[in-house]
Amino acid sequence: MSSKVWFITGCSTGFGRELARHALERGYRVVVTARNKSQIEDLVAGHEENALALRLDVTDPSQIAAAVAAAEERFGGIDVLVNNAGIGYFGSFEESDLDEVRRMFEINVWGLTQMSRAVLPEMRKRRSGMIVNFSSIGGLVAFPALSFYNATKFAVEALSESLSQEVAPLGIKVLLVEPGPFRTDWAGRSANEATETIADYHGTVGARREMIRSYSGKQPGDPVRAAAAVVKAVESPEPPLRLLLGKPAFAGAFEKLAALRKDFEAWAEVTKGADFPPDEV
To answer: What residues are labeled active site?
Structure first.
């Protein structure tokens, strides 16, 4: 396992940084990337034989192609792609700046998509590899003030679930990582918010936004332990499709399951009644 090559996006802070650190400590060869290369030089210091630091903006196709080519030239291939780069955005559905929303989709969805498509041809040739996509508990459960962020993560969930079925026969695996609240910079400088607010949403959107901002740096989740959990899942001979991280994510996922079951069962007869009667099939 230690000879495998990891390629990780968004390594300047948070999950990406801790994953790169942990993977290097485990003896893996690691391609460490960030938009600002100077912010990741310390991660590769002392690991020059096994680490490669690269500048990478996942919204720039030319940088993606160059980074993948550099990784393949240096290490011969990519075994584990970790699509970690992402940003948040706070605002109600109605208040949100759609230019900011599009920027978030470019990073969270299209950046992940372009990175995955860049590594898949070689993984298919080798009939092996894993793509690790960072989603969120917000990819399973939607919250006020996060409608468009939730939308990006719901998209990641759908893309990953479908992709996992397409590539499983080719020896390629997909892992969805679904963290709850962790002490990363997600709710800090990297997350913009709607500049114009509507009073009608202050009790829902405003309250949630204030709670998240004030919670930043005090979340129960430990990024170091999260990194170890992700590596453990990747190393498993039978990794899950979905890996929840943290007790709040675990509780939230099961609350969503219960809510779905409640609606489905309450409307079961109406649901089933939408089919043609048996004698008309």
So the answer is: 135, 149, 153
